[in-house]
Design a protein that fits this description.
disordered N terminus, 37-stranded parallel beta sheet, globular, 24-stranded mixed beta sheet, alpha/beta, Sporulation protein
């Protein structure tokens, strides 16, 4: 072959001659200008015929036009750049050789056939199959990666097959390539994998990989996937990890054996617009481990597990999405995850529509709709210190609308509708808080039920229409109900019993089938400026407290009225005083500790001594009734005895030993630390050590601000809210992280230590958290450690104690354990894995709930179940160990 002409580099020349190319020289254009040139290469695809390459010298034919028919079994390479050489043609024995010979900008058109090669594209070429013959070019090596792209190439109209379970079928490692109309049918680790600095644009590609992940974007990879489809995946449909951040547009993911879309790991991010996830055996969308995701106009439906799962500091935004036909929880959040929903609908779910768990976990829903439950669970479940905010939302056609339970849990509902609720619209229990503003509750058995001690919140300017009972307050719960109207309740408008409290301000009851306000058992309820109209049995009923009623118990009624036709039955006190009490209540109720009100209470006998909520004996009785915690009970009793004896010595004129009342609680979550802290505050109040005894629970987010100076303000505000009670700091070690640097947590600690010293008798501080972390926290903060008198360790519950919790749950809900069920539960709790996520008391409660669900599935098949059928839980009702 002759030497190359001017403008063709020597390396290029040597490369082409190595493949035995022959060229036809053309004269260059007049005046030295570039002449339009084409560069063609023919490659014989021997694998198509199953024969070895021919040994004879390849033939070379000049091809001067673009429309020449391509020979069967060849790869035609066309060079679109300018060159003094018009054409080079030749035959190659492999695709790899053609790729090696091609330069940036070349177009490789592959003839139909099966190519059993591992291709690596390292130049910005175009690699494509013939037009009009989709799927006719198969890249199908025996093992390894069939196609690797490491450049900004164009790949289109190829069929890629892989058989190696350890590697992907199509790997994109570098550049910004365009992949169009590529079909991947494989049994590989991943159908398409994007990693590192690669930023491909993938259009109209499909992946069928029943052995592994459909599309994996890992290790910082990115790119855009448009109109793509994962038709089968043995694991996740689309998996994002290692700081990757792809965008999916109008993609479909279905028939995956794992989650449909999953993102995990810090800095990993997934964005999906107009996508659909369905028919997957795991969760539809799973975001974990500090990953983030944003879904817009997406559908998630027909999953086997939860629709959407968030765990461990995950962040997800759903806008204009639809989640439906989910047998489990439509959305489940845990471990400090944050979810924002806007204009999103959740329907046809088997368990909870929104399930929110753990301190720091939060969901904000705006203009959303949750409806049409297919199970027997609350539509929105908030527990274990989580927070939910519903703004302008609708919840309807569900068994229960909103359940908030556990100390520290909170729900804020604004301008929302709760309707067509078969049982309770709002239930608040176990020390939780709910606040409803400008809401409408319609067609529910119970509008709102504040169930037990420490539970409370506010209903402000709400209407309750068509309920059996508007609001129920029981067992020491203490909500504030302001400017609320209950219309046409079948029974009572407001019902208070079993030691319930509550303040009712400017409330109305109209058209009740029973009483307007029905207060039993001498409950310490406050009614101000309330009115009833057309109540069938009477506007107000204050039943006797009975022989066990405490002295001074009974409601406080002020400026309340009723229409005459309803038969107003007010207490028989003179009308002149500003405060009226029920006739059977000789004393006046003092201010209720920790209660949120919008009015001052100067008229309620301020000069009289405050009566404690309960005696120390009663509170210690509740402590003793808790399952397990024997060492904790001994510690609290010993401390209580020291305080009590010290108080009596002072009364006798003797010196009393100084007792440091601040405590450290260590142990796993779910072992009762918050409950014991609440009882400890009540005990100190009953002994006169604290003025109120209420509990204010905070964590790092409540104390540490975003800029210098704000932390001290936040800490002072929290301390002030706890004045007269207990300040409970959960996960206190988070204020002093190991890699603190310039962290503002130290400012919170310093402020707290000073406040504890300056106001040593005003507030009791309890810091709590995992045992090892709290030991580190105290060791690096001697100023804090010196303020605490003792550490109380909360041990994990044993199998027998977990069994007792289940038995208590069963008794409370009117179930019984059948013979053999208790023994099966013991074995179950012995065998259940007890890793970091083990929930202790929560695990017992979840086990009971699972048994009730299985019981319901079994009994629902009986035509005429007996009482035993309806109440007995059997060993086979236990959930399977996972």
């Amino acid at each position: 072959m002759g030497a190359g002409g001017p403008g063709l580099g020597q390396d290029r020349h040597r490369q082409l001659t190595a493949f035995r190319l022959r060229s036809t020289r053309r004269p260059r254009a007049r005046y030295g200008g570039p002449a339009e040139a084409d560069f063609g290469i023919d490659l014989r695809a021997s694998e198509l015929q199953g024969r070895a390459p021919r040994a004879n010298k390849p033939s070379v034919r000049p091809r001067w036009g673009h429309n020449n028919a391509m020979a069967q079994g060849t790869v035609q390479v066309t060079h679109a750049g300018t060159s003094r050489w018009r054409r080079r043609t030749g035959e190659y024995t492999s695709l790899a050789a053609a790729l090696e010979a091609a330069a940036d900008g070349d177009v490789l058109t592959i003839a139909p056939g099966t190519y059993r090669e591992n291709l690596v594209v390292q130049r910005a070429v175009t690699l494509r199959g013939p037009e009009g013959s989709p799927g006719s070019v198969r890249i199908a090596p025996v093992d390894g990666v069939p196609l690797t792209v490491r450049a900004s190439a164009v790949v289109q109209d190829l069929h890629v097959e892989g058989q190696d379970a350890a590697v992907p079928a199509l790997l994109v490692e570098e550049g910004a390539p365009e992949l169009t109309d590529v079909r991947v049918v494989t049994r590989s680790a991943a159908g398409i994998e994007v990693r590192g600095s690669a930023r491909p644009t993938v259009r109209r590609c499909t992946v069928d990989n029943p052995a592994g992940i459909g599309i994996a974007v890992v290790d910082g990879g990115g790119g855009v996937f448009e109109d793509c489809e994962v038709v089968a995946a043995g694991q996740a449909g689309v998996a994002v990890r290692g700081g990757a951040h792809p965008r999916l547009e109008r993609c479909r993911v279905h028939h995956a054996s794992g989650s449909g879309l999953t993102a995990t790991g810090e800095n990993s991010a997934l964005e999906a617009v107009g996508c659909e996830v369905y028919e997957v055996r795991g969760s539809g969308v799973q975001i974990t481990g500090r990953a983030t995701a944003h879904l817009t106009d997406c559908d998630v439906h027909r999953t086997t597990a939860d629709g959407v799962t968030l765990d461990t500091d995950a962040v997800l935004t759903l806008a204009d999405c639809r989640i439906h036909d989910i047998p489990e929880n439509a959305v489940d959040l845990r471990s400090r995850s944050v979810l924002t929903l806007t204009r999103t609908s959740v329907r046809q779910f088997g368990r909870n529509g929104l399930s929110v768990w753990d301190p720091g976990t939060r969901v904000d829903a705006n203009q959303c709709e949750i409806f049409d439950s297919t199970g027997d669970y609350p539509a929105v479940w908030v527990s274990d210190g989580a927070t939910a905010v519903l703004d302008s939302c609708r919840v309807h056609d569900v068994p229960d609308a909103l359940f908030v339970l556990d100390r520290g849990s909170r729900a804020d509902v604004v301008d929302s509708d709760l309707s067509q609720v078969r049982n309770t619209a709002v239930s608040v229990s176990d020390g939780a808080t709910a606040q409803l503003d400008d809401c409408r509750i319609r067609d529910a058995a119970t509008g709102a039920w504040f169930r037990d001690h420490g539970s409370g919140g506010t209903l402000n300017n709400c209407t309750l229409d068509g309920t059996q009972t508007g609001v129920i307050v029981t067992k020491g719960a203490d909500p504030t109900i302001e400017r609320c109207t209950v219309d046409s309740p079948a029974e009572a408008g407001f019902y208070v019993s079993a030691g319930g409290r509550g303040s009712f301000l400017n409330c109305r009851v109209r058209g009740s089938g029973g009483y307007g306000f029905h207060v039993l058992d001498g409950c310490r309820t406050t009614l101000r400026k309330c009115r009833t109209e057309r109540c069938a049995r009477g506007g107000y009923e204050f039943a006797d407290g009975g022989p066990d009623a405490e002295s001074g118990a009974g409601p406080v009624v002020e400026d309340c009225t009723s229409d005459e036709s309803a038969g107003l039955r007010m207490p028989t006190a003179p009308p002149e005083p500003a405060v009226q009490t029920a006739a059977q209540s000789p004393g006046l109720l003092g201010a209720i500790p920790g209660q949120r009100t919008t009015e001052q209470e100067p008229l309620v006998a301020a000069a009289q001594p405050q009566t404690p909520a309960r005696t120390s004996k009663a509170v210690l009785g509740e402590l003793d009734a808790l399952v397990g915690l024997e060492s904790v009970k001994r510690e609290v009793r010993a401390l209580t005895d020291m305080i009590e004896v010290g108080r009596r010595r002072q009364q006798a004129g003797l010196k009393a030993a100084s007792v440091k009342r601040h405590l450290v609680f260590t142990g796993s979550p779910g072992t009762g630390k918050t409950t014991v802290a609440r009882l400890y505050g009540e005990i100190l109040a009953s002994l006169g050590v604290l003025d109120k005894g209420h509990l204010v629970e905070v964590s790092r987010v409540d104390l540490v601000g975003e800029h210098i100076g704000s932390t001290a303000i936040r800490t002072q505000e929290a301390f002030e809210r706890a004045r007269g009670g207990v300040l409970f700091i959960d996960e206190a070690y988070a204020l002093s992280p190991e890699d603190a640097g310039r962290d503002f947590g130290k400012e919170a600690i310093d402020t707290l230590v000073k406040l504890m010293e300056d106001h040593r008798d005003a507030v009791v501080v309890i810091v709590a958290g995992y045992t090892a972390e709290m030991e580190r926290f105290l060791s690096v903060n001697p100023g804090v450690a010196s303020r605490f008198s003792r550490t109380i360790t909360f041990s994990d519950y044993g199998p027998e104690e977990l069994l007792r919790i289940v038995e208590q749950q069963a008794e409370e809900h009117e179930y019984r354990l059948a013979p053999g069920a208790a023994e099966a539960l013991l074995k179950y709790f012995t065998a259940i894995p007890k890793g970091p996520a083990f929930g202790n008391g929560r695990t017992a409660r979840q086990t009971f709930e699972a048994m009730v669900e299985r019981h319901a599935s079994r009994v629902a098949q009986l035509d005429e179940p007996s009482t035993d059928d309806l109440t007995l839980l059997y060993a086979e009702d236990l959930p399977d160990l996972t």
